[in-house]
Each structure stands twice: as C-alpha cells, then as structure tokens.
Automatic annotation (TrEMBL):
It holds the Pfam family RVT_3. Residues 41-129 form the RNase H type-1 domain. InterPro entries: RNase_H-like_dom_plant (IPR044730), RNase_H-like_EbsB-rel (IPR052929), RNaseH-like_sf (IPR012337), RNaseH_domain (IPR002156), RNaseH_sf (IPR036397). GO terms for molecular function: nucleic acid binding; RNA-DNA hybrid ribonuclease activity. This is RNase H type-1 domain-containing protein. It comes from Panicum miliaceum.
Length: 129
C-alpha cells in the first residue's frame, strides 16, 4: 500500500507525462448519472476530489473532502486555479491537494475517489513510481 507522499509524487509524475502527451490525446469528460457516495471500509478514510476547468479562460477550481467510515467530514478544502492547460491538470491538483492534506494529518489508510478516468488509471498503475 502506498503512503500519501508516494501517491502524491506518482500523481504529479503522471501529470507531467500527460502534459507532454496533451497534443496527441485530449480528455473529454462524459456526463452521466452520479452514483451515490459510499462509505469507505472500517478504519479507512475516503478522499473525494473534483475540479472545474474553462478552456476559454484557462481558469478553474479544485476541491476535496476527507470523510471517515461513518461519513463524517474530517477535512475539506477548495481553491481557485489559474493558467491551466486542461481538465486533467485541474483533476490532478485536486487529488494532490487531498493527498497532501492527508499526509499532513498523518492519515495513511485512505481510498481516493475521482471522476477522472485517466487519474483513476494512473493511481491504480503500480508501474508509475
């Protein structure tokens, strides 16, 4: 199991790779039904992250919430982003901020949840480290 610092580094590394490949491949978010939030297993916390991005202005925002196995909020934060290249960059920043907050609070047993398929794949790929 990765610790939060290792995961944050892996996410940033994957973001750099995606940045280099961005002219070859564009990410498109597909709107669909929003499944209900599910609690993490006992003794785990869940970090839900999301972002926004405007291709016209290059601006966006990030946010995350950390909840325990009862659904209670442990920590949450959000912020504004400038000079973004794409939606994936905003998603990575949102997840990374959640990972940093978990590391600062010495939270180790976490489950990350995001709606970005590329980010999900990057976090699941153990070869990225």
């Amino acid at each position: 199991m990765r610790n939060a610092d290792d995961l944050a580094f892996a996410i940033q590394q994957k973001s750099a790779e995606e940045f280099l490949n961005m002219n070859r491949k564009k990410e498109a978010k597909v709107a669909g039904p929003n499944p209900a939030w599910s609690k993490p297993p006992r003794d785990f916390l869940k970090i839900n992250s999301d972002s926004s991005f405007s291709a016209i202005t290059g601006q966006g925002g990030w946010g995350f919430v950390i909840r325990d196995d009862e659904g209670s909020v442990i920590h949450a934060a959000a912020g504004k982003l400038e000079r973004l290249r794409d939606a994936l960059q905003a998603e990575v920043i949102a997840c990374s901020e959640g990972a940093k907050a978990a590391a600062e609070k010495r939270i180790c047993k976490v489950i990350f949840e995001t709606d970005s398929l590329i980010l999900k794949q990057a976090m699941a790929d153990d070869s990225i480290s």
